[in-house]
Design a protein that fits this description.
The protein has 308 residues and is of the alpha/beta class. The chain is globular, with a radius of gyration of 19 Å. Helix 3 (117-128) packs across helix 8 (294-307) and helix 6 (214-234) packs across helix 7. Strands 3-2-1-4-7 form a five-stranded mixed beta sheet. A five-stranded mixed beta sheet has the order 10-9-8-11-12, sandwiched between helices. It has two domains: 10-116 and 292-307, ATPase, nucleotide binding domain (Nucleotidyltransferase, domain 5); 130-287, ATPase, nucleotide binding domain (Nucleotidyltransferase, domain 5), CATH 3.30.420.40. It has helices spanning 42-60, 99-104, 117-128, 189-193, 195-202, 214-234, 253-268, 294-307, and strands spanning 10-15, 19-27, 30-37, 66-70, 85-86, 97-98, 112-116, 137-142, 146-152, 155-156, 239-242, 285-286. Helix 7 (253-268) links the parallel strand 11 and strand 12.
Amino acid sequence: MERKGMNALVGAIEAGGTKFVCAVGTSPQDLTRTQFATGDNPDTLFSAVTNWFVEQQRLRGMLQAIGIGSFGPVDLDKGSPTYGYITSTPKAGWSNTNIHGAVKRVFPHIPVAIDTDVNGAALGEYYWGNAVGLHDFVYITIGTGIGAGGMAGGQLLHGLVHPEMGHILLPRIPGDTFAGVCPFHGGCWEGLCSGPALLARSGMSAELLPAEHEAWEMETQYIASAIATIVCVLSPRRVIIGGSVRKGGQLGSDRFFQMIREKVQLVLHEYIVSPALHEEIGGYIVPPLLGDDAGVCGAIALAQQAAA
């Protein structure tokens, strides 16, 4: 996927369930940024966000486009009357919110592009991170929620709506009676492994969870089961895991990834024959090279494509 308009000055919004990260710039090395708490009042938030972009235009020059990578589900069908709306989200106050329209109303004369936050992060990693040179990969975020996006054949994953891999149902670990926190499915992947799920299961946030806590064993086992499913269905050439939980709390990121890699191998049980899943698995399941900036950098790329 060619990145046209690569030098264009654009705006970017990484719209997450906890915070909106906003930036103006041309690349990861050229970002003026701020953030706002998401809260439960979209009107108040969008007023603050768009006012910030108006001020940045005064300071840095006219924006050529704005890109939005949003939590979802999001209606991405341009022929739909609710195009650009967040639809049936569990996020309080955000169901049926016209996120695209809220930005477009203030900036009617420039393109406003929108995709899922995980597709946005995937695009950032594709141009500047751990997916450079790859046309088939998956980007997973594990934080306030769980989502996954990526590419197949060099195209961002879309379809009927967009992938909702975070809500796949997983085989339960014997003896695990935790109901899960997803208001739609209870014990789906997000319901069992998101940051709020870890908190509900253990009584501690992921950042504070001790390395020896049994919740890490369950967390990494469920993540491994989900990744094995994705490998079987999409056959990605790399799996990138972002989001706050991937830092592993007191366990640490290195051990967190090691546990997941080992358990993916056990779940797949040598069925899929590839060096990537055996001796090279350390380079197959990886954190984002862009770190916490993957999403906002992807929104920059979305905007630059729209500006071309």
